[in-house]
Every structure is written in structure tokens, then in C-alpha cells.
Amino acid sequence: MRYPKNINNKSVIGFVAPSYSPSIEPYKSLFKNALKNLRALGFKFDIGPNVYTAKGIGISNKPDKCAKELMDYYISDKNDCVISVGGGELMCTILEYMDFNKIKESKPKWFMGFSDNTNFIFLLTTLCDVASIYGCNAPDFGMNGWHKSVEDSLDLLCGNIDTVYSYGMYEVDRSDIDDICAPFNVSEKTRLYKYPKGDIYMKGRIIGGCLDCLINICGTRFDRVNEFIDQYHEDGFIWYLDSCDLNIMSNVRAMWQLKNAGWFRYVKGFIIGRPKACMHDKDVIDHREAFMYMIRDLNVPVIIDADLGHINPSMPIINGSMAEVKCKGNKMNIKMYKI
User: Fold this and answer.
1) HSE (CB half, 13 Å, CA atoms) of 337?
2) Which residues are within 8 A (CB) of 261 and not within 5 positions of it... i.e. 6 or more apart?
């Protein structure tokens, strides 16, 4: 696994929009404030041509133009890392225009993003053998008063930390908050579902991302997961999964699909975040049982409703790193090793 060079507060951050751009509120004001906050720390910027564009469908611009921006900025020597300015819906459509061989041959660079950015984060690791960060999109740095999860994302980029800890509280609703740049409105205590019950420990190479995106990649020409996990089979794998728009039964089908595609071979455990679309829904089964339904027979540790995903806050993760996960009660931590 190749690990990019860490940045510092004198570095140049490249911003790209391979998914949505911050062209509407609240993202527009948040991104503007993010530049202000990061500039105050000393960072400089290299802003891509699509960052303020809204000409695409589910992404900032036409797929070929989004792919060109991402390629150019990842390979460029004018910036030291690349952060996505947003999630979205159809980043998958840019993949056919990407040259992953060229990326693999280039100097490794940190790319950080969230949600739809799984389409590059996951492939950067599984196709190019380069670690990436499933963490904040740029507008998150626009909050006035960063949540610890936002601090953790920047600290991982800078190499200041190697361990992230659960945050204890999560956000249920922020509809009554008028200030666009207000911090997360955390009000609910984190309650972890664990299998088996009791303390949990797992160690392995950690990979994953947004489940909605992973099932789209699965089975395409960009799916080289089985080759990747064969390469690192001695390490075993911890899968982290973030479900966004999938309903309860869609999550069952998603887990079935990845399992039967062979992705869960050599699995050492799962960390599954709070599913945005169905956390409080009731079907024949609830969301915890939906995830367990297809993986219980793998007989590995599982943590569900972790601080991970679209219900804030979310622990940033170095995709492709070796990791040790410890969980006791409703507290967990992930220590990541660059090996």
C-alpha cells in the first residue's frame, strides 16, 4: 500500500467537484467560510474549474469534464492534496473517462471526500494501491466551531493523529437552526449494536465507503476487489459501510450482492454506520437485522450504528490502511497504521 505525503498548514489544497458543487445553499456559504477558516490556518488553495459550476446532472459538470478536472488536479504538482467540495448522485458516470493507469503511475497524493466520492476513494485504493481518506467534504470546514470529527479529518491529512475515537453524541435534526455555518446539533447518545455482545476487538486492512456506491461498482470493469483482497489476504479485512439512500430491504440486497461477489472473503469484521434512510424505519426487520441477515454466518465481529456515515458526526478513515478496532460499551476507537 502506498501512502501519500502528509500536508501541513503551508500546503496547497486542491479543490475539485467530481460530484456536486457548492453552487447552492447551504453548501455555497459553507464552502466560502471553509476557505476563510482554512486560510486563517495558513493553507493556500488551488481551485478547480468545476468548483463553482452547476451544469451537470447529479454532478457539477458533464462527466468527461469532471473526470478531466479530477485527473488534472490529482496528478498536478501545483497542489499537495485534493479535497472534494461535495457529495452527489452520479459521480460513477465519470469513471469511464478516468485513466487509472496514469493515476497509478503518478506520485501518490491524499484525496479526501465523502459519500459519492467513494467512486474515487475506493478505486484509488483497490485499483491503484494508494491509501485515501473517507472524511470531510470541503464545506464541512465552513462550520464556525469545528466538531471533533472535522478536526480529525484535517489531522489525518496532516499526520497529526493515527487514531480516531467515537464521539458519543450524534445529530438528529438541525431544521430549527438558522445559522448555515452552525456546528453539528448533536443531541442523541450513540448506542452501538454489537455482535457478539460484549467487548469487541478486530484487526485487518480497512476498506469500504458508501454502500450505495459500492454496489454500483460491483461487477463492473472497475471492480478489481477480488484481486485486491487476494493481494492482502494475509492481513484480512475490516469493512466499513455507510448506507445513505438504501431502505431496509435494499441494505439486505446490497449485503447479499457484495457477499456473493466474493468481496467479504478474508473478512475480519464490519463497522456499519447509522443508515440515513432507514435508521428509524420498521419493516419485517429493523436496519440492524437487515445488515446482520447476510453476514451473521461469517461469524466475525460486527458494530452497527457507529459514528460513520450521513448522520453526523462521522469518523474519518484511512481507506487501505491496517487498522485495530476496539469497542467497549458505546465507545470505540480505530487506530490506523501506514503499512
Assistant:
1) 9
2) 218, 219, 223, 225, 226
C-alpha cell read off for 243: 448506507
Please enumerate in sequence order all residues whose Cβ is within 8 A of that of 28, keeping only pairs 6 or more positions apart, or say none. Answer: 22
Nearest of 15, 155, 4 to residue 78 by alpha carbon: 15
Instruction: Say if residue 298's pLDDT is above 90.
Output: yes
Give the model's pLDDT for residue 173.
85
7-64 pLDDT per residue, tens: 999 999 999 999 999 999 999 999 999 999 999 999 999 999 999 999 999 999 999 9
List CB contacts of 137: < 8 A, sequence separation 6 or more: 83, 84, 85, 86, 87, 113, 114, 115, 117
Predicted TM-score (pTM) of the model is 0.97
Residue 268, CA distances (Å) to 118, 240, 323 in order: 21, 11, 11
Q: How far apart are CA 279 and CA 310, in angstroms?
A: 11
Contacts 24+ apart (CB under 8 A), 169-177: 170/274, 170/307, 170/311, 170/312, 170/313, 171/311, 171/312, 171/313, 172/311
Residue 117 in contact with residue 124, Cβ under 8 Å? no
Structural contact between residues 90 and 61, judged by C-beta atoms closer than 8 angstroms: no
Q: What is the pLDDT of residue 281?
A: 83
- 176 pLDDT band, cuts 50/70/90, is confident
- Of 148, 128, 130, the residue nearest 140 (C-alpha): 148
